[in-house]
């Protein structure tokens, strides 16, 4: 039997309109929003780091779903497109048809601004996920590395990790009050790293903490998500200085310092 065999599962793309049921600030920089609605019937997210495309109201208050044209996603002529951003499904209840999404509140951007002001009854659109990358569950240890944008995926992965797994988390956050309660049936340890005023793009707390980790016996899988440039630095370190096989690393740029959307695997 082949060890450490990952699997990619493709899903049929479904577009949905959902309603805000509740919005709550769970830490100073994280807003938790619960979405509901019959259109969530059949929603499927099979992996903790799945992404859905959230479609927010345009300046006219309309939800404009793009259609796939010859040049990629297109909107009807003369229509102001809706802002769209990728987010992790934090938790889904298939019985109640409720989806939880955690938003980092950072003071600017259409998603953060919308989430900070969200009220029950407001509606947005959701597309996807298009697919789920299923990480092999037979590694000796898992290391999860990420900033606050990665906390929803890290928290969900801990929730879903199998009993007996060994997990080490390096979590970088703006300040100590942004720590979240995390739980798992796995054996896990969390190292919290507070920036305390340092910008998330220029911090090196994760990089230094990663270098300080011991080289454990056995096979270790590394999952990394943060600002794009920092992710590339950490992936390069694991490959060139620790000799970690590329199949044992999943590294994604969740955001870019210049404000553009990004995603790299």
Explain the overall architecture:
- It comes from Dyella caseinilytica.
- Residues 13-136 form the FAD-binding FR-type domain.
- Pfam families: FAD_binding_9, SIP.
- Belongs to the SIP oxidoreductase family.
- The structure is a single chain.
- This protein is α/β, with parallel strands linked by helices.
- Helix content is 15%, strand content 36%.
- It contains four helices and 16 strands.
- It has helices at residues 110-117, 151-160, 205-212, 228-240, and strands at 7-10, 15-27, 30-36, 52-55, 67-69, 72-74, 84-87, 89-93, 98-104, 123-127, 131-134, 141-146, 166-173, 187-194, 220-227, 249-255.
- The strands form four sheets. The protein has a seven-stranded antiparallel β-sheet.
- β2 (15-27) and β3 (30-36) form a beta hairpin.
- The longest helix is centred in the last third of the chain and has 13 residues, at 228-240.
- It is globular, with a radius of gyration of 19 Å.
- The two termini are 26 Å apart.
- The relative contact order is 0.17.
């Amino acid at each position: 039997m082949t060890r450490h065999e990952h699997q990619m599962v493709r899903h049929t793309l479904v577009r949905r309109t959902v309603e805000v049921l509740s919005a709550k600030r769970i830490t100073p920089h994280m807003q938790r929003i619960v979405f509901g609605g019959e259109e969530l019937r059949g929603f499927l997210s099979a992996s903790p780091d799945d992404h859905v495309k959230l479609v927010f109201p345009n300046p006219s208050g309309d939800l404009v779903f793009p259609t796939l044209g010859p040049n990629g996603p297109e909107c009807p002529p003369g229509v102001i497109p809706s802002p769209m951003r990728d987010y992790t499904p934090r938790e889904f209840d298939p019985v109640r048809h409720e989806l939880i999404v955690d938003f980092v509140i950072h003071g600017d951007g259409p998603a953060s601004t919308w989430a900070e002001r969200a009220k029950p009854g407001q509606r947005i659109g959701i597309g996807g996920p298009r697919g789920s990358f299923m990480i092999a569950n037979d590694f000796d240890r898992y290391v999860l590395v990420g900033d606050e944008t990665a906390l929803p995926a890290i928290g969900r992965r801990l929730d879903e990790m199998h009993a007996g797994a060994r997990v080490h988390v390096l979590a970088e956050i703006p300040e100590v009050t942004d720590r979240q309660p995390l739980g798992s049936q796995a054996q896990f340890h969390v190292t919290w790293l507070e920036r305390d005023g340092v910008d998330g793009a220029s911090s090196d707390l994760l990089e230094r903490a990663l270098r300080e980790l011991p080289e454990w016996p056995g096979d270790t899988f590394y999952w990394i998500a943060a600002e794009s440039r920092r992710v590339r630095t950490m992936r390069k370190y694991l490959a060139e200085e620790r000799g970690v096989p590329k199949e044992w690393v999943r590294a994604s740029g969740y955001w870019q310092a210049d404000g553009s959307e990004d995603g790299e695997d």
